[in-house]
Amino acid sequence: MSAATSRPQGSRWLDAERKPDRMPGNVGDAGSAPRLHGARLALLTFALSLATFIEVLDSTVTNVAVPAISGGLGVSNSQGTWVISSYSVAAAIAVPLTGWLSRRLGETRLFLAAVILFTLTSLLCGVAGDFHLLVVCRALQGLFSGPMVPLSQTILLRTFPPDKRIVALALWAMTVLLAPIFGPVVGGWIIDNFSWPWIFLINLPIGIFSFAVCTTLLRVDARNPGAARAAPIDLPGIVLLIIGVGSLQVVLDLGHDRGWFDSPLILTLAIVAALAIVSLLIWEAGERHPVIDLSLFRDRTFSFCVLIISLGMMSFSVVGVIFPLWLQAVMGYTAYQAGLATAPLGVLALVFSILVGIYAARFDARVLATFGFLVFAAVLWWDAHFTLTMTFTQIITPGLIQGIGLPCFFIPLTAATLSRVSDDKLAAASSLSNFLRTLSAAFGTAMSVTLWDNRALYHYDVVAQSVTKASGNTQRFVQSLHGMGIDGARELATLHHVVQQQAYMMATGDMFQMASVTCLVLAAMMWLTRPKRGAAMTMGH
């Protein structure tokens, strides 16, 4: 029975006519191997998902390990953050290069090389006894991690039959969405029970397993390693990309701690990044063999979907960054407790990722994405009304519900993004959309922390004006302090702490409100797109 006759009656997302499927089983390189089925397909999917999981996990697992790494290697915490920055800068450079590299080397070859080299550099990070060596190894690890996420997506989509590609996308999305949620929890647990090298060494068995399975099941046709193997190297484009993206990522990583443009280093890097990126766009627009294919943005649906998913991930970064910061700085939670409070977001996200994969064919992609954004908006508005007296159960309940919205906007929106992309540009489109998504998340992270601090300062000034001797509330509070034996300098310190705590609580509410309004705007913007019906099935058409 064909996909057209077996689809659900009344489907709005799967009605498009499609060209006959001719994609080979050995994904990424032309060949004639049969498509995988049954247990072999399930095993390959599991191996690809594991590779994606450890790559995304490694981008967040070190966040809670910086104090342990700094203490173990005898450096300051500010120096220790380079373990995070070196990885993110290298990965930011490598991701947009994936499309170009896959055209020259072949998608399968590039993916397998990335997995085994990522695993090897994980080992080197784990055994590094010198801080500078660790930073170099982390940079190499980030460089090799770049192709893993976009190519795992591309390979999964090409391996699955057309009528099951939304399921493949849902499985891929599960790993991309859940790894950052559980990263701090896993990192905190490893640090508490073992030692910091194990946050890297746990990648070894997973990476080796993924490489072995993918090598066995993804046959590569040696006669055709890449359609554009003989294409000229866009050296100016590569140089401008490295300078521009590398400088921008350093600005985002270090800007908050260095006072942004008050720092000569940040100001210089920002100017370099702006000049290099503008020059890159001008150069690539006229280049016959560009390292970044800007022609993808000629399609309205691709452009709007990339913009929407990028802004959506910026809003999600408020949950991922401000929420645990608020728990630790205001509510007094430890890093591990904050991770546990964030983790429930992944419970229903996991369940609904599966449900969306199974039933998404019954709905218009825009309807699902709109529903997801509306769930996010409602929960973020709920979060905006948190108080300092919230219990753990009250704190995690909105996050549990928020897990419904995450896959509902992320999976169909990703499918819609690639729905009008031709087969030969699938890897380039996947890498470009993933790059802009991760860069937007990094931008959102940096901006949200700065904005959170600024709003807290504003609220501190406003609240402090009401803390006067003439205020009845202040008098009653001071009397209660005196009753506990707190006076003099301790009294002033306590008043300062209470006002500051309230100011950050109010700033947290402001951040959640802004994110909520953003999600409402994105829900409306979804209707500016025109994804193909049967979006997942027409990917790589």
From TrEMBL:
<dbReference type="GO" id="GO:0005886">
    <property type="term" value="C:plasma membrane"/>
</dbReference>
<feature type="transmembrane region" description="Helical">
    <location>
        <begin position="197"/>
        <end position="218"/>
    </location>
</feature>
<protein>
    <submittedName>
        <fullName>EmrB/QacA subfamily drug resistance transporter</fullName>
    </submittedName>
</protein>
<feature type="transmembrane region" description="Helical">
    <location>
        <begin position="139"/>
        <end position="157"/>
    </location>
</feature>
<feature type="region of interest" description="Disordered">
    <location>
        <begin position="1"/>
        <end position="31"/>
    </location>
</feature>
<feature type="transmembrane region" description="Helical">
    <location>
        <begin position="169"/>
        <end position="191"/>
    </location>
</feature>
<keyword id="KW-0813">Transport</keyword>
<dbReference type="GO" id="GO:0022857">
    <property type="term" value="F:transmembrane transporter activity"/>
</dbReference>
<feature type="transmembrane region" description="Helical">
    <location>
        <begin position="110"/>
        <end position="133"/>
    </location>
</feature>
<keyword id="KW-1003">Cell membrane</keyword>
<feature type="transmembrane region" description="Helical">
    <location>
        <begin position="230"/>
        <end position="252"/>
    </location>
</feature>
<feature type="transmembrane region" description="Helical">
    <location>
        <begin position="367"/>
        <end position="384"/>
    </location>
</feature>
<feature type="domain" description="Major facilitator superfamily (MFS) profile">
    <location>
        <begin position="44"/>
        <end position="534"/>
    </location>
</feature>
<keyword id="KW-0472">Membrane</keyword>
<feature type="transmembrane region" description="Helical">
    <location>
        <begin position="81"/>
        <end position="101"/>
    </location>
</feature>
<feature type="transmembrane region" description="Helical">
    <location>
        <begin position="304"/>
        <end position="326"/>
    </location>
</feature>
<dbReference type="InterPro" id="IPR004638">
    <property type="entry name" value="EmrB-like"/>
</dbReference>
<feature type="transmembrane region" description="Helical">
    <location>
        <begin position="434"/>
        <end position="452"/>
    </location>
</feature>
<dbReference type="Pfam" id="PF07690">
    <property type="entry name" value="MFS_1"/>
</dbReference>
<dbReference type="InterPro" id="IPR020846">
    <property type="entry name" value="MFS_dom"/>
</dbReference>
<feature type="transmembrane region" description="Helical">
    <location>
        <begin position="264"/>
        <end position="283"/>
    </location>
</feature>
<feature type="transmembrane region" description="Helical">
    <location>
        <begin position="338"/>
        <end position="360"/>
    </location>
</feature>
<dbReference type="InterPro" id="IPR036259">
    <property type="entry name" value="MFS_trans_sf"/>
</dbReference>
<feature type="transmembrane region" description="Helical">
    <location>
        <begin position="41"/>
        <end position="61"/>
    </location>
</feature>
<keyword id="KW-1133">Transmembrane helix</keyword>
<keyword id="KW-0812">Transmembrane</keyword>
<dbReference type="InterPro" id="IPR011701">
    <property type="entry name" value="MFS"/>
</dbReference>
<comment type="similarity">
    <text>Belongs to the major facilitator superfamily. EmrB family.</text>
</comment>
<feature type="transmembrane region" description="Helical">
    <location>
        <begin position="511"/>
        <end position="529"/>
    </location>
</feature>
